[in-house]
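ARCHIVE RECORD
Type: protein–small molecule complex
Small molecule: adenine
Source of inputs: curated submission
Record status: active
Notes field left blank by submitter.
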Amino acid sequence: MRLDIISIFPEYFAPLGVSLIGKARERGTLDVRVHQLREWAHDVHRTVDDTPYGGGPGMVMKPEVWGEAIDEVTGDGAPRLIVPTPSGRPFTQELAQELAEEPWLLFACGRYEGIDSRVMTEYRARLRVDEVSIGDYVLAGGEVAVLVMVEAIGRLLPGVLGNACSVADDSFAPGAMRNLVEGPVFTKPPLWRGHEVPPVLLSGHHGKVARWRRDEALRRTVANRPELASALDPGSLDKHDRRLLEELSFRVGPEHMAD
Ligand code: ADE
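STRUCTURE (tokenized, with ligand):
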């Protein structure tokens, strides 16, 4: 997969040389190219922003600079253009999976109040353009959001994770545990500072371990993500799940959290 990133702070992307993503780049699974937006600014100060029409605080990134940058980086090709912004569609595991299937992504990192909206309008005629938010909070710019997205997407590429099964086990991954967050995990030693590893995990009984893990996933989902637990498809719950949810005084379906 080819990934282009345009930003006024290319230094932000040093972590993409490390760990899983760094190794994927060395192996050639990922071809990451980071570009300095100011290279496409022509005045002496290499200006990339200006005051907003209509007034208001902050600055807006200039369309001409972005247009030249995107034209040159894309050439005759057609990457999918991702623009991180708090006003975008939510970045989810499902979107990460969809983007992991693309051959080429181009991330355009805005700073200040964002990029002149005509840039997105212009490229929508030619490319698939998604404005994407990584969460309901405001960052100072899109760079950190791109790091988050590249890591989430990159680890889904074939051969990037050592153990192919770990992707299937993820919270939010499709499958039986879909829409449940993962439960707690343990390693050796079996007793640490008086805290035991749950004995079922040492039992070697795969069926019981799977059941325990599902129970813990349900408990955590109810405790930490009640909105996800409410949205569980009742058809995906077995008798044991229903009994556990009852024990937790939790009813599946809209607006129930029994007290
Ligand atoms: N840029 C600033 N805040 C952001 C957010 N929450 N998600 C994506 N990009 C952003």
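CURATOR ANNOTATION: Residues 84-86, 133-135, 137-139, 142, 145 surround adenine (CB under 6 Å).
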